[in-house]
Target: BtrH N-terminal domain-containing protein
Amino acid sequence: MTTVPDIDARGTQHCETTALGVLLRHQGLDLSEPMLFGLGSGLSFIYWDSKNMDFPFLGGRVKPFGLTRNLAPRLGLELLIQETSSPRRAWDTAVTSIDAGHPVGLQLDSYYLDYFDSKIHFGGHVVAMYGYDDHKAYLVDTDQQGGAVSTSLTSLAQARAARGPMTARHRSFTLTAPENLPAPHAQIVPAITACADAFLNPPIANLGHRGIEKAGKLVRTWLQRTDDSQRDLPRAALLMEKAGTGGALFRNLYRDFLAECADLFSSGHLRTGHTLYTEAAILWTEVAALIKKAGESGDAQCLVQAGSVLGDLSRVEREAMRALSRLGNETPA
Model:
């Protein structure tokens, strides 16, 4: 068995921030999960539906791997991404990093991993790999999935080779920190304002605050959108609350990021944003509960209520992001 020495195999709530935490701690940089999420401008929203989808998808963050791409330059890190159509070359790339004493991040489809009990295809899943032997790969995943886990080499190969929505071509990545790291906290305001600007000015109506408003209108039709409401609606609610999002479709993580920032410097706009995202997190949990109840009971009124709450959420989050977008215009105390 070959493993990276002195690995801190700590699982957290979300897959990409879990993997980033493993890679960065190995580089000597230990940041909280909310701070990683916030510095990567990770919060967003998408209402995603298409003809080839069985059921609509609500997403609460930037697209897979976008967080990593945002975070690396903000922290002055060298991000090396490797992709290939060759399974053998993909494996060689991963083990070369581990043999050299460095954990490696992998993007894959979680459906194939042995330790996943819930078999749902998700091609944007990210893990950190820190070891291997003749039969297994040793990974760090979220707390929900067990933290330090293992999966067969066959299952890992299938997961990495999967094709479909959000998948990548055997993507692996490493992060290297310079000798003199810039102060991460100096990047808080740029990270927050970039996130706010993207949320407030989405290019299409499915994204940002406009996407939440659209979801509020369309969620009311979800009982007609499915041929198995007892399966699809509770599953949608589960993805919003439990499936690696930290609850409330990532709003809990962003709330905690803003709270951590408020401990570092004083800002009225920051306090407003934190207060409103505290409210938003509660409302998102309420939406998930209503969607689950609608699926289990077949009561369309629950979806009407969920739609109404989503309308409120669009306004709350728009107001929060407007306040946070003004951070760049003030001098924090």
